[in-house]
Amino acid sequence: MPMLLIKGFYDVKGSQPDGDTVHFTADNPIEWDLVGGVGGRAVEHSAVGRATLRLDAVDALETHYGPSRVHQPLQFAHAARDELLNWLGFTEVQRGSDETVTATTPDTVPGFILTRGADVHGRCVALAGRGTPPATSGLEIDVDVPVLRTTVNHHLLTTGLVYPTFYRSLFTSLRTEMTAAAKEAREAGRGLWPSDVTTTGAKTTGLASLTDDIAVLPKLFRRLVDYLHLGTMPLACFPAYLAGVQDRFSILTTGERHVGLHHVVEVTNDHTVRMTYPPEDLLFDEA
Hints:
alpha+beta, CATH 2.40.50.90
């Protein structure tokens, strides 16, 4: 899979990193202009080349979602964030009460990213590596499974601290490897998986049902939070809401293409919400 390599360093001071989002500064800011992507979206970056990365193919539990900063169980959300920063090379991270990083040791750590585009928010969607890059910055390289295994994206899946969440831009061979890593972590009972109720069912009587005890796929969590904030309709109407949101995706094992997560989400009479397919079986279109 050809991907653009950009060399630079990670610097998280003044930001609020979570388990799948971190700041990266390109050594040569001009190289951000080489990033393509859906609709030709540009990576938003500062004059010195600092941009936000959205780690490709993984989704960590939310630490501060939306204007009301709603979170999922923080023991897993924080564990994913800490694992990400530790793996990159930060040995100490100090934070304020709002989770903004105030100091790190070291100040920055060298690394590289592998990318094919930006998301709708101007974040660079990337595989993130540490240390010396495997090739020249500013050029495309073929990213195979051995290269994928050197990235934090793959590492986080092996720890069981993030969910696999796939989009069409990721090549099949890489998706297959990441699926295998996620399944192995789940079967071994690592990380969040013993608390995961995405397919077994999340009893949902309000926001508190989702924030403290149980883990569900963050995409489902975000849709539930947005729906509950409307505050006017019973949970039984949640599938209708999902139909209106119009997430576009395929089910890999059946080949079916759908518009709207109501095709794979059930709500029972006892206020339980569940997905009828595991996260790794869904392939989303880029928004």
